[in-house]
Write a structure and sequence with these properties.
There is one protein chain. The protein is globular. It starts with about 20 loop residues before the first helix and ends with a helix. The protein has about 210 residues and is mostly helical.
Length: about 210
């Protein structure tokens, strides 16, 4: 009998997961079987995308709100930005892993230079993730204040999730600073994370 935490087996003759599975269940199941799994940066971006979707759900449940249409449009943009960033940072991450392996084998200045360039590109995308997260947290505050009281807690949860995504992204930029990120990237990521954290506090204060 396999250990209780081992991933469920996927029959070789049926590599595709059942279509009737909910989207999140399919995503969770594929995490266990995909060779290239999401990086920490991609996880931060996906957290922000989920936060934006929570904001949209609360707005959808508030039909009489004058700002509802604008909030829904902003949430759609934020969700798309976060999802796009997740794919881009994941691709860069896998290139970085391959470049790290090559640098170890080559042990040359040229290989290290290429790696530094890849790290700088990764930091750029991480800063964009932090920016999207900060924008999402700010929007969540607005929705927490004006959204349907029945689901208002979902907006505060979105602010918490977005702030976490911003802090994750800023942390990764800080780590990359040691190898290739620029100081201005780190400063900007920290600023965005701090703004998102303040928004989180403001959203929580609505329900206090």
């Amino acid at each position: 009998m396999p250990p209780p935490h081992s991933p469920p087996p996927v029959p070789a003759e049926h590599p595709e997961l059942p279509r009737e599975l909910p989207a999140l269940a399919q995503f969770a199941a594929r995490l266990q079987i995909e060779e290239r799994r999401p990086s920490a940066g991609a996880a931060a971006a996906l957290a922000v995308a989920l936060a934006a979707d929570l904001v949209a759900q609360v707005a959808e449940r508030t039909p009489g709100w004058d700002a509802r249409g604008g909030v829904l449009a902003q949430a759609d943009v934020l969700r798309a930005r976060a999802t796009s960033a997740a794919g881009r940072v994941a691709a860069i991450y896998h290139v970085l892993v391959e470049a790290l392996d090559a640098a170890v084998v080559a042990s040359s200045a040229a290989a290290e230079g290429d790696l530094g360039e890849e790290l700088a590109q990764a930091a750029d995308v991480l800063v964009q993730i932090a920016e999207t997260a900060s924008d999402c947290a700010a929007l969540a505050v607005l929705v927490a204040k004006s959204g349907d009281t029945v689901v208002r807690a979902d907006a505060t949860a979105a602010a918490i999730l977005a702030a976490a995504g911003a802090e994750m992204a800023a942390h990764l930029v800080e780590v990359n600073l040691l190898a290739g990120a620029r100081q201005e990237q780190t400063d900007r990521a920290r600023e965005l994370a701090s703004t998102a954290v303040r928004s989180r506090a403001a959203a929580l204060a609505v329900l206090a």
